[in-house]
Amino acid sequence: MNLFHNPFFIIGVSTRDSKQSIVDACDAKSLTVDSGLCTRSRAILTQPRNRLSAELAWLPGYSPVGAKVLVEKIQKEPAAFLSSLDGIAPLPRCNALVTFLEHHKPNTESQITGLLIDVAQSFERIDYPKLMAAINEDRQIAKIPAVQDVENIKQEMQARREYMVGTMKNCLNNIKDPDRVLTEIVAKTTSEGKQHPPMLVEELTDKYQIEVQKYLDQLVGQIRSVMERIQEQPKQSFEYQMPTLYKYLKTWDQIAQPIQIIHQSKGMDDPHSKKLAQDLRGLAVEIANSDEMYSEAKQIIKIIAEVFKKLPQFAEKVSEDLAKLDDIIKRKPQSKGVEDQSMADCFLDIEFGTIFKKRLTISPAVIRFNKAQIPPNEVTKLRWGEAVIKRSISFIPIGTTHSFFISIGDNKSLMYIRPSERNLYNMIVDRLWKVVCGRMLEEALTSLSIGKKLVYGDAVVEQSGMVLKKYTLSGWDPFFCKWADLFIENVADGFVVQSKTEDATSITVFYSDTDNAHILECVIRLFCEGSSHHQKLRESALFGSSDFNNEEKKDVLQNTEMIKKGKIVALLGNNIVMVSCPKCKDTMKVSLKIASKESKIVCANCSQQFYLPK
Fold first, then answer.
1. CA angle (239, 218, 248) in 5-degree steps
2. Are 218 and 342 in contact (CB under 8 A)?
3. CA 382, CA 603: separation in Å to the nearest integer?
4. 266 φ, ψ to 5°?
5. What is the spatial distance between Cα 456 and Cα 60, in angstroms, rounded to a whole number?
6. Which SS3 state, helix, strand or coil, does residue 99 take?
7. Of all helices (H) and strands (E), which one includes residue 373?
8. In 3D, which of 384, 423, 388, 381 has the Cα closest to residue 405?
9. pLDDT of the residue at 345
10. Whose CA is closest to 411, among 457, 375, 362?
11. Which residues are paired to 402 by β-bridges?
12. Residues facing 502 on adjacent strands
């Protein structure tokens, strides 16, 4: 209860009035105030055991006149009350301040901070023996039995303390940023975590933690989701995900700081904060050790040092991490230069078109075409290719037209790009392989390694082989073939996968009709063809082999046009053969005396380079 709800105020008596005076005052007051309320107030003040709670919620030690003046100031002259607090005993000061907070409901952050600190520090200064002496002095005048044991006062003060903490919490709820105000209160009353907090501040923070814990748990879930995305694709997603991670952590920091400072003042780390900090440090260690992303790991450690600076037992470990990372970064200037160049090779920012200009930007953080944009790690659909149109008049060839297309999409939108020149087309495809396709190929191989099936249009790929179509009398039926029984070759705008052992068993995939057809082609070639790179990548993806190093993997990914082979369509004798170009299907004569097996051929029609088959 506050002073205005106290039985002494309701009936209008002092702590020195006798039982008879209280009864008489109650009878007179019942004419203007609710009689039931007066009766309950009289019962509290005339029973020694019940009376103690009212005395502790009043102004013990104050004279009747002084108490009346102070209550009137709180009610009618709040500014005068706040300027006349000097010299008031601790408990009366607490009761008066709590009454002011409840009655006037201040909403200025600086004023609330000062008042709550005043209440908490005044409560700490309460001297219970002196308090009991002041109460018994008034009781003696009123001829009320004295309080015999100071423990009775201490027990009664527990309920009083809970009431004060509740009032302080309600006061914080009246302002926009209670977390920031509470942090300031905790910091000032503990000297930034260097000394034990006042009892009311500690209990206020406990109540605050109960209220915000649900929101903190939601934030932790969001933070861990971002961390998982970074762990899955650190090099592709780090730059894009870090602003989100930092935003979530700063929000966490603002809410959790008072809790952290309270634990720090006791020489402990807040367990929830410590667990989150350890997991973040684990992420930094992982990307540093596994991916050699030392600068990125340092960014995470710096954020940990900023957000979790109130964890004294964790701070020393963070300082050691920063020192080690600084040392590694200083010792690898050449490596850093290579990394920077590699990052620069992933960027593209161009305009094309004559009248209506279109702008395309590709980076590890975003792919943007005009007003549409998609993060690279959210791309799920890719197509690109070249259409070749041969023109003729009266069956006489007059030229060939080449057009290019590229489409990029996620689950919600699709960008359709039509480069006008081959060089521009090749530049865009090159950046897509570096920014998007590496991740998509990795995901495909990982899915196969855990037994999942991949579906690309009509093509179904499994870990041990893929499903083709076999022609029978009843039509085309699915037919499963193992990798060792398959071979792949390119056709116009796509590729064909055929069985080596089964006749009329194949499947054709066109780049223009099938999403991610190039990723599928890369996967099939990795498993079908017997090069050392393919074998090592297959073992690395499916069996955890570490023999396939990053340079070899990079070499495979950057060579987006896998080695294509022409097709011998006729033997003309004298070591002369007719060879079909895998791209435009034009044929040409080749002398085996000049061009040995597996030598490189250049198509005279479309300039496609390919190898002469064995």
1. 30
2. no
3. 28
4. -100, 5
5. 84
6. helix
7. strand 372-374
8. 384
9. 67
10. 375
11. 388
12. none
CA–CA separation, 481 and 461 (whole Å)? 10
**Torsion (CA) 431, 433, 439, 440 in degrees, nearest 10:** 130
Which among 135, 164, 155, 112 has a CA at the least distance from the CA of 3? 164
- pLDDT given for residue 62 in this prediction: 83
- State the pLDDT at residue 308: 80
Residues 309 and 264: their CA atoms lie apart, in Å, by: 10
Sign of CA dihedral 367, 455, 496, 543: positive
Q: Which stretches of 397-482 are DSSP H helices?
A: 422-432, 438-449
Tokens describing residue 350: 């161009």
Ramachandran sector of residue 608 (left: φ over 0; alpha: ψ -120 to 50; beta: rest): beta
> What's residue 541's pLDDT?
38
- If you search the block for the tokens 């901070």, which residue do you land on? 113
Please state, in angstroms and rounded to a whole number, the distance separating the CA atoms of residues 345 and 431: 7
**Rounded distance, CA 579 to CA 597, Å?**
12
CB neighbours of residue 1 within 10 Å: 18
Question: What are the distances in angstroms from CA 133 to CA 62, 124, 318?
Answer: 13, 18, 54
Contacts 24+ apart (CB under 8 A), 311-314: 311/260, 311/264, 311/269, 311/270, 311/273, 311/274, 311/277, 312/193, 312/264, 312/267, 312/269, 313/268, 313/269, 313/274, 314/269, 314/274, 314/277, 314/278
* Rounded distance between C-alpha atoms, residue 274 and residue 265, angstroms: 15
Nearest partner of 506 among 481, 473, 474, judged by Cα:
481
| Claim: this prediction has a pTM higher than 0.85 | no
How far apart (Å, rounded) are the C-alpha atoms in residues 105 and 465?
A: 74
CA–CA separation, 467 and 455 (whole Å): 10
pLDDT value at residue 520:
92
CA distances from 283 to 69, 104, 190, 297, 321 (A): 63, 50, 33, 8, 13
H or E stretch covering 36: helix 35-46
* Total length of the chain: 614
* pLDDT at residue 540, as a whole number: 41
Phi then psi for 464, rounded to 5 degrees?
A: -100, -5
The label of the residue with tokens 């004798």 reads 573
Sequence-separated contacts (24+) of 19-26 with Cβ below 8 Å:
19/46, 19/142, 19/143, 19/144, 22/46
Q: How far apart are CA 563 and CA 558, in angstroms?
A: 12
Q: Which two tokens stand for residue 69?
A: 């003046």
DSSP characters over 260-315? HHHHHHTT---HHHHHHHHHHHHHHHHHHHHH--HHHHHHHHHHHHHHTTT-HHHH
Q: Distance between CA 46 and CA 144 in Å, rounded?
A: 8
**Residue 185, C-beta contacts closer than 8 angstroms, at least 6 positions apart:** 113, 116, 117, 120, 201, 204, 258
Q: What is the pLDDT of residue 466?
A: 92
User: Which residue bears the tokens 């008042």?
Assistant: 115
Could you say which residues of the chain have pLDDT below 50? 334-336, 338, 531-563
> Is residue 217 classed exposed, middle or buried when 0-12, 13-18 and 19+ CB atoms within 10 A define those classes?
exposed
How far apart CA 348 and CA 429 sit, in angstroms, is 11
